[in-house]
Amino acid sequence: MKIAVAGTGYVGLSIATLLSQNHEVVALDIIEDKVNMINNRISPIKDKEIEDYFKNKKLNLKATLDYKEAFKDADYIVISTPTNYDDVLNHFDTSSVEDIIKKVVDMKLKTTMIIKSTIPVGFTDKMKEKYNIDNIMFSPEFLREGKALYDNLYPSRIIVGSKSKEALKFAEALKEGSKKEDVKILLMGSKEAEAVKLFANTYLALRVAYFNELDTYAEVKNLNTKDIIEGVCLDPRIGDFYNNPSFGYGGYCLPKDTKQLLANFKDVPNNMIEAIVKANDTRKKHIVDMVLSKNPKIVGIYRLTMKSGSDNFRASAIQDVINMLKDKVNVIIYEPILKEDNFNGCKKIKNLEEFKKQSDLIIANRIDEDIKDVIDKIYSRDIYIRD
């Protein structure tokens, strides 16, 4: 088949790489540098498996800036453009997704469109009605930053929001490209598939918030967080995973997806969903209070990225921590991937040793080997020294 993929972020590039093992894939992006990098088999995002596949696998993959070239004669058009959450309007900004849909409609194509971008519940049906089309469906992705291709190669499940032959065929193409033998395929309604994505990510946010609040309690009451977590998580119904305290959940998905789900609950009774969103803000305020209680004059922020193996710091919890700190103390930042000399009014220190020397206190969401030599200066809630 020929498959077009619109958008080459974590979702789009990992799917394009996966499918190009067995099919002709044309990836569409609006940034020329990214297109050139993909065509030269240089990954524009940090992902170990994508980098490996670009270097060592024979992929039928090319990238283009021309949407007509990408969409012409395609059997499927996968839409994986970004949908950021608009805090003013209280919903996802789905304009980039709709832009692709409109282009396909204007080209008078009957090609099946697969939305992989995260969208509000009911969006797919809304597009069907607005453009009088039926050739569109939603398929949620469940990927981690830095491990996007890995999670496509070993998927927990494959879900498509349609029970049609086209939906099953697309699901089988994803399964075909994976390395996992027993992959469960679920075909369901579009609204149910949209809800699965939001509820799944909100549960993950709930788990992060839960162990963060456990850690807040332990820190305030001077208890051993690790002992409590181990005692709790040895219960097999809870499980010893996804339980390392942090400064709060952040990144591409959890902040915006929890807020979108809460917006979808507008006319539905709820307590828990709203509490998850509020708990993340409470945690960041607690982190700031603990830092200020140590009376530092210069606070160093070690990395804006919040987890190892990622080059993304969009909506990272540390940004809100910085905003709350910078008017009270001098804040400096060490972040190698940051190109600018300043971030949000705070000076970037390029040299790590100089950064460590200047900082009275270093805030690190995750501790690594580069700063273990100044462990006495570090404030972190990284109990397990891992993600």
What does this structure look like?
The protein has 387 residues and is an alpha/beta fold. It folds into two domains: 2-188, 3-Layer(aba) Sandwich (Rossmann fold), CATH 3.40.50.720; 225-379, Rossmann fold (3-Layer(aba) Sandwich). Helix content is 41%, strand content 14%. The chain contains 14 helices and 16 strands. The chain has helices at residues 10-19, 32-39, 48-56, 67-71, 95-106, 123-131, 148-153, 165-177, 190-220, 225-233, 254-264, 272-292, 317-325, 352-358, and strands spanning 2-6, 24-28, 61-64, 76-79, 85-86, 91-92, 112-115, 136-138, 158-160, 185-187, 298-302, 330-334, 342-343, 346-348, 361-363, 378-379. A six-stranded parallel beta sheet has the order 3-2-1-4-7-8, sandwiched between helices. Strand 9, helix 8 (165-177) and strand 10 (185-187) form a beta-alpha-beta unit. The radius of gyration is 22 Å and the shape is globular. It starts with a strand and ends in an 8-residue tail after the last strand. The mean pLDDT is 94.
Query: Using only CA atoms, what is the Rg?
Result: 22 Å
Distance between the termini: 38 Å
- Label the structural class: alpha/beta
Average pLDDT reading:
94
* Number of helical elements: 14
Order of H and E elements: EHEHHEHEEEHEHEHEHEHHHHEHEEEHEE
Q: Using DSSP, what is the number of strands?
A: 16
Biggest sheet descriptor: 6 strands, parallel
Low-confidence stretches: none
Query: Beta-strand level of the residues, as a percent range?
Result: 5-15%
- Bulk shape: globular
Task: List its salient traits.
single chain; 387 residues; alpha/beta; Rossmann fold; 2 domains; six-stranded mixed beta sheet; 14 helices; globular
